[in-house]
What does this fold into?
Amino acid sequence: MKTLKFSSNDSMPALGLGTWKSPKGEVYRAVKTAIKLGYRHLDCAPVYGNQHEVGTAIKECIEEGLVTREELWITSKLWNDAHAEADVIPALQETLKSLQLNYLDLFLIHWPVALKKGIGLPQRGDDFIALSTLPLSTTWKGMERAKDQHLARHIGVSNFGIESLKKILAEANHPPEMNQVECHPYLPQNELHHFCREHAIHLTAYAPLGSGDRSAAMKAEDEPDLLGNPLLNNMARAHDLSVAQVILGWDLQRGMAVIPKSTNPQRMAENLAATKVSLSEADMNHVASLAKNYRYVNGRFWLLEGVPYTYEGLWE
Ligand code: A2P
It folds into this structure.
């Protein structure tokens, strides 16, 4: 398994199982199957609504001797309603309780967006808190405490652009070690990738396959079909790979982690096998030529009337 190295010498398996959109009643079986197949990295979040089931599957795999806790890499995230410094550790403790774990390997601020306490998915502008009132650097202090208290071995962020990262880097005692963002051939994140490399921040690619199972409300009518892209399909056929394997192999070869979601055993196995894919420089460049700055998860769901956020500000 390819790994990403941290300054502490810890290694994160570069390919993990995404659990966003994995339904309750299915995710338990998916996690157990994934661990049996050899997955050692699971990506979770409280807002996915399925952490307890994920945790039960992990616990049973450990009890059955299939894997040890130390062999697993478990990532979870801080929801937007717990950005106040004093709310970070209680929120993390809730997540640990759901996952039935004592610590996380990686804990991320889920979005550079703050919501009032108790708000899951916002319904109106009044549910939000402006970042000028509750800055990301304040939330980061809570994240640092989580690391100091050994509740999270590594801390980082998700959905952060360069300007948001700079705000944290300017004041951090423990700089962020990870930025988890949407990344695939239509959104290669070149500039962000370069900035993160310069600051020893790893990238994890979410929605690597275009997240076709998002709700209709999250989809644009004219969105491009990633898995159906002709160039990727021709390349896959030429190398006897699936299109998913070409995309995942491309992400991994760029030095990123990648977290494809599946609850289907065959596709989980197929995705895991992408860790063995090796693309030529010409193929890497062909895939890179597909870039079109297209976001499947564009964050427009945050932009309700009267919110103290803008589209440009969200991704800057
Ligand atoms: P399923 O869970 O039925 O396998 P993303 O990781 O970009 O969010 O994409 C997840 C979507 O891609 C899900 O609909 C998932 O379906 C599907 N998927 C996962 N792996 C593959 C694969 N190897 N080939 C095609 N579709 C896949």
In short: The longest helix spans residues 85-99. Residues 3-315 form a domain with the TIM Barrel fold (CATH 3.20.20.100).
